[in-house]
Amino acid sequence: MDHEPARQVAPCLDCGASGARVHGEGRELFVARCSSCQSLDYMEMHARFGTRALWEAEVTKMRNAYKAPLSDDEAKAIVEYLTRAYGPASSPASASR
Fold first, then answer.
1. Which of 1, 3, 40, 66 has a CA that sits 20 to 30 A from residue 24's CA?
2. Long-range contacts of range 64-67, CB-CB < 8 Å, 24 or more positions apart?
């Protein structure tokens, strides 16, 4: 009996902490600029701590330490998106408050 190898499914790069797709301004830029190095696992790991200050620090680190090719406007748009999509207000727990 032949068995097919298990298929690996790529993580959803545009899903929020709840697993639902997070659309909106900045998503396409985030996927285009960040998905080659970052995964949904990384986003979810930080989502519950994802304050604006954290996302600003993370994007700054990616630009300075890892030389991510982002303009100032792109960095600002990505921080806005991450704060909205993966910040504390996006978590299921905050919706029940």
1. 66
2. 66/37
DSSP per-residue codes, 75-97: HHHHHHHHHHHHSGGGSHHHHT-
pLDDT for 25 equals 86
pTM above 0.70, yes or no: no
**SS3 at position 27:** helix
pLDDT reported for residue 87: 78
Give the number of other CB atoms < 10 A from CB of residue 68: 19
**Residue 94, phi then psi, degrees to nearest 5:** -70, -25
Q: Is 76 exposed, middle or buried (0-12, 13-18, 19+ CB in 10 A)?
A: middle
Residues of the chain below pLDDT 70:
1-22, 40, 44, 46, 90-97
> How many whole angstroms separate alpha carbon 57 and alpha carbon 62?
9
